[in-house]
Design brief:
The chain is α/β, with parallel strands linked by helices. It contains 9 helices and 7 strands. Strand 1, helix 2 and strand 2 form a beta-alpha-beta unit.
Amino acid sequence: MGFLSRIILIKSNNRKKLKNMKLFPKTPSFRLDGKRALVTGASSGIGLGCAIAFAEKGAEVTLAARNKKDLLEVSNYITSKGWTSKVLPLDITNVQQTAEKILQNGPFDILLNSAGQARHTSSLETIPSDFDAVMSVNLRGAYFLTQAIAKGLINNNKSGSLINISSQMAHVGGLERSVYCASKFAVEGFTKAMAIELGKNKIRINTICPTFILTPLTKPSFDDPEKKEWILNKIKLGRAGEVEDIMGAAVYLASDTSNLVTGTSIIVDGGWTAD
């Protein structure tokens, strides 16, 4: 056999070996490099934690909330770590202004909406102003914010991941939480409907449903001994949630690791809803 024939035979055998070689999967990345994320409610609590998580994973994070001073404090912390952030004062209850700001500052590859409102009363004592205040943020604001981000992605022919912070109370009832539950059940509903519509655009939309997380929003509940006992008895792991418990779920939904996840919720409740 001549030299050239031997070379051809070797190449042919190598091709056969490659063809028969088992292909092993590659773990998708949790990194968010090159992504632009908008985080509302970023001045405190869950929003602040998720903003830090996204920045640490490489995203350019735009911090949004009503209080610019608090946002600047968060932004300074993020930049001190060598990560990237911007500040965008925003009130999502002002639907028109929110849409305009999203258009001016977008498109955003990732949305994490943690803006929320809670006014807990017995259902027999709910007054219209409290009902409207909660719905204005938790439902109306969340709906049209999500719509604005989705429009920006579609107009720029981009895929994306949209995440609303919902609640375990979107899956169960709770004492003095009729209005809050109604708002969060509604968020779960529009999440599923939007996921069906936006799937063809490769835009994913999901929710994260935390249990009681130790934040300024839940402080009144933990300050009440009876309510605190009720909470801790319902959480099977025996402790209240921390902001850090939500950060990993947010990174998962924002990253390529969840590329086939849409129209659903990640429940981070310590087993509350297992009953």
